[in-house]
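Dear all,

This email documents one entry for the complex benchmark we are building for the journal club exercise. For each entry we list the sequence lines for every component of the assembly. Then comes the predicted three-dimensional structure of the complex as a token string, followed by one or two observations. Please use this as the template for your own entries, and keep the labels exactly as they appear.
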Amino acid sequence: MIADPAVFDDEHLPRRLLHREAAVDHLSRAWEPALGGDPAHDVLIHGPPGVGKTALTRHSLQKLTGHADVQTAHVRCLGKTTAGVVRSVLHDLPGNDPSVNVPREDLCIQLQERVTSPVIVVLDEADGLPSTDALDRLVDVENLSSVVICHDPDEWLSRLDGRLRRRLSFAEFGLDRYSVDELADILEARANLGLPSESVTREQLEVIADEVAGVARNGIQALRQAALRAEELQHDRITDEDVSESFERAKRHIRELNLESLPFHHRLLYELIRMGDGLEAGELHDQYDAIADQAYHGREQTPISERARRTKISKLVEYDLIEVEGKNRHRVYRVCDREVVAQILLNHVI
DNA sequence: ATTCCACGGGAATCGGTGGCAA
DNA sequence: TTGCCACCGATTCCCGTGGAAT
């Protein structure tokens, strides 16, 4: 059923971005100076998750670098320190990576030296930065211009000093969620590329677009899951049931990927919570202590303190893997989807 | 009103890595 | 080669907070 799986990857960039013409124009204008070898203008792009901010930027940068001598760096800011951001920019530019123990100030100096012609740096998920210090460092570099991608522009701008705020709000724009029709167009284009012709109807695509409320990323994943289900059940085209089942499957898939990406501590706590099906904090800690020695036996890691467990638990919540009910000592932990299982062996322990 | 208890922020610390100078 | 230093991520320790239980 799926002719080309890559079409449904998060990283896949379509040749043409549908329904983002205005935004593409906006970016081209801001970057126009770079065509003549001058620094581009800074840009602030905002909008809810999954509406194509990153795709838009990557797509437009690709076009730009095709006919202008511009270097680019794409930084995923989430959880990065200032040094981490600068390091990541250096990584994307030509030259060797500085070693891990180079002080922050030296990294900034290296960056100054390395940027001799126009460079555009994308700070993706900039809300994830602890401070705006990283941006301060970047704008200090001559010839370097930035693209800041964030969810809440007001919150972001309020964190900046006047000079930076003016620089960024010069070319600022937001992306909205797609309408059902627009997203259905996007899904149709993907289906044409990745699925055999006529395997999905326009109506089904609209159902998906509607269900995911205009969030392109989720829509594409749902379409993929619908196609996978059709494949498993050997339908020659996607059925309405494949579609209605696809949403839960897409969510589950994302959760499974998230869970597997986490270290052992997290997965062990997750598994305890899953088996407990509604555990109070006290119970959770007791169970952890009871099995810790055996569970960690033969592993590099060692059991962690209660405080550290709380940090892991917050991470599980952040990743939408568990939920918390109640307050204070009566809060209860529960997994969001009991079908999502951590692939660790606990049966011999519990 | 007081006690209890878990949360979560922040500072200190630990362990591993790698450059650099003696 | 060896010792020293700076980095960083992960962890522990300390503690203020706040709502339920007593």
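Observations: Residues 81, 83-84, 99-104, 304-305, 307-308, 311, 327-330 of chain A lie near DNA strand C (CB under 10 Å from a C1'). Chain A has three domains: 20-174, 180-259, 262-335.
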